[in-house]
Write a structure and sequence with these properties.
Structural class: alpha/beta
Low-confidence stretches: none
Mean pLDDT: 94
Largest sheet: 5 strands, parallel
Helix content: 25-40%
Number of strands: 5
Length: 169
């Protein structure tokens, strides 16, 4: 599930597989036994899963050394949610931002208030994150936002983010 409606979403039409928390733990354990050290919780929107923090803690407990969450960050506009997530044991947090301002971000994600909520979420995460939690910005370039890369980089820098992941359709 997701609280955005991105124009480029490739996940929204997929059927949920292995979504039950017990099954998710089994999958984490299976892949860890096979030598996997990194897991990425992504979307839909992982922060909508009430089991996200317990799953992160479980992943770390069984030996995952890298735990990433890729999020639109809207729920992190609630400071307590942001603080709980960045202190959960994750090692990287990647915020999806697809426009450097309200209008361009809304055009990509289909929700007018998303930009302000995401930026507030980034600010909260940055203010509460432990030093060893890396924060980045995830950008999907589209035909309507690709000319805004410089402005997105400036926004990332203003927010204290020094790592950008740029995806192409």
């Amino acid at each position: 599930v997701c609280n955005n409606h991105c124009t480029f979403c490739a996940v929204g039409t997929r059927t949920q597989v292995d979504g039950h928390p017990t099954r998710q733990r089994e999958q984490l354990e299976k892949y860890r036994r096979h030598g996997v050290h990194m897991v990425d919780f992504d979307g839909g929107e992982p922060t909508l899963n009430p089991e996200l923090v317990p799953l992160i803690r479980h992943a770390r407990r069984i030996g995952y050394t890298r735990v990433n969450v890729t999020t639109n960050g809207r729920l992190l506009a609630y400071e307590d949610v942001a603080e709980r997530l960045v202190k959960s044991g994750l090692t990287t947090l990647l915020f999806s931002v697809h426009g450097p301002d309200v209008a361009s971000h809304a055009r990509e994600v289909g929700v007018a208030e998303a930009f302000d909520q995401t930026v507030a979420g980034i600010r909260h995460a940055m203010s509460h994150r432990p030093d060893d939690v890396e924060v980045g910005m995830n950008i999907t370039l589209t035909k309507t936002n690709f000319r805004k890369q410089d402005a997105l980089a400036a926004l990332a820098y203003e927010l204290g983010i020094r790592w950008m992941n740029i995806q192409f359709l």
